């Protein structure tokens, strides 16, 4: 009996202690792997689907293997030099290019956690800003000041000596591929070389022939925005009237027709450029109204019924109105003239639904 009481008392003490201990444990943060930046980086092969989802720190090798993919279509193999292995292809390329030189003892330490400042230094060197950073004070302060001016640190936890977390890693990589490169204009051995930022030229455009754009999806293989006859062939998309090969496109939203998108495409001499990614812009707003519920239209203001209540919506001239019914598509640009209003609404009355309010640029 005494043994039982002793055991019961021990269990009660443990029960009281466990919640307090659990509360004291650090809460692990998770990274939004569906953010636009994460989706873009996956589509470009700079991060993998299987990479960590918790906001842990990033190693030197992980960062190098990702950032080097801004200039390579596939990750090059490493060489067994110093303390590198074949898995450290990014670090080997940076070492070969003189971007990194190790810790002074002949070691690169690929499995060490990389700091924000180390990641920034690598990024600016790849972008061609070494001389500018040195003029600003050199490593580390000059690199951090320049990175801030170039907006490379947007979304990156500040503090050069801080370890780079995975969420900051994703934001930094996005900023790197969006940043324009600096190129040498004239060289002087006396230290008076001149450089210039090249408008519109980025690492991915210079080395991978990949460009970004923003526009409106004007046709898919299901239908065109202006008429059903404008639909594209299978595995194609039309953005602002230009047809792209979309066989391998990475989509963030299946409902693309009429949407504003940020997209990445590979330029080529082929009849159709390859679009790699379409990410639906955050400013898209969609209002769906059944055609049976539309009461009237007057001067850009639609009156309709929803849940037994009369509602109104004013659509500005910048809004694309798409009427969707079965496999047939009609388009109204607001404000429509009175004749087209009557004919379109008369046609819609016998169909299933209309979709209003996809903003366009």
List the helices and strands and how they pair.
Blueprint: H1 2-24, H2 36-43, H3 60-67, H4 89-96, H5 116-127, H6 130-135, H7 141-149, H8 166-178, E1 182-186, E2 194-197, H9 203-208, E3 210-219, E4 236-239, E5 242-245, E6 250-251, E7 260-266, E8 273-280, E9 287-289, E10 294-298, E11 301-306, E12 309-314, E13 319-325, E14 328-333, H10 338-348, E15 354-359
Parallel strand pairs: 5-8, 6-8
Antiparallel strand pairs: 1-2, 3-4, 3-7, 4-5, 7-8, 9-15, 10-11, 11-12, 13-14, 13-15
Helix pairs in contact: 2-8, 3-4
Query: So how many helices?
Result: 10
Summarize the biggest pleated sheet.
Answer: 5 strands, mixed, barrel
* SS-derived structural category: alpha+beta
Order of helices and strands: HHHHHHHHEEHEEEEEEEEEEEEHE
Strand content: 15-25%
Percent of residues in helices: 25-40%
Q: Report the radius of gyration as a whole number of Å.
A: 28 Å
Per the principal axes of the C-alpha atoms, what is the gross shape? Answer: elongated
Oligomer: single chain
- Return residue spans where pLDDT drops below 50 for at least 5 consecutive residues: 1-5, 7-15, 18-26, 323-361
Question: How many β strands by DSSP?
Answer: 15
N→C terminal distance: 81 Å
Average of pLDDT? 77
Q: How do the strands of the widest beta sheet line up side by side?
A: 3-4-5-8-7
